[in-house]
Amino acid sequence: MDVVGMLEAAALLVPEGAAGAGDVTVADVWDCLAHDEWEVALGLLEELGEGWTAPTGFWEELGRAAGMLRLERSEAWCRWRAYEDRAGAIRVELTLEPVGGTSFRRTPMPGAGVMRPLWDIGSRRSDGAPDLFVACMWVEYAHELAPGDRAVVRLLPLTPERWRCLAPGDRITLHETAVPGGTGTVLEVRPPASPGSPLPPGPRIGA
Prior knowledge:
With about 210 residues, the chain is an alpha+beta fold. The chain folds into 2 domains: about 5-85; about 90-190, Translation factors (Elongation Factor Tu (Ef-tu), domain 3), CATH 2.40.30. It is built from 5 helices and 9 strands. The radius of gyration is 18 Å and the shape is elongated.
């Protein structure tokens, strides 16, 4: 299937009542496709995917189309959303420790899912020490997160079942070393929309 066919297949899955930012609808997507504005159509479909629960295959089709258009960040985002459907979504407001604080980090953390830090989500080992778990991190609406900055991030845990104890308002901490490198407040915990493997393969791009 070519790029147009993939975008058309994804557009056919969008309900007529779905709307994105700026009241974008699937009619706008079809208009872009009619004028061969493929990248714009892809971006609009990504926006529309935020306003409703996409069925299986929607994000996969967009990811394949983005790959054929060589839009690496869009491809990574669509792959991320497809895995969120299988693993569930966790959104956190995260603040990194500033330079000169307790964290060793002196450079921004890349934002497009390439980081797999450890997290203290409140679980404890038998000796009372924190039981840390791995989760990939995607920074919303930014290419990176600098020390001292705050942003909403999405987490994709390696072991989702261990994170099901979380609820909005819970506090968690990010660890790149034994010392916490950031603190976060859980905003949303969404269950899987469909079963499947939770963690995407190793990242291929930067933020």
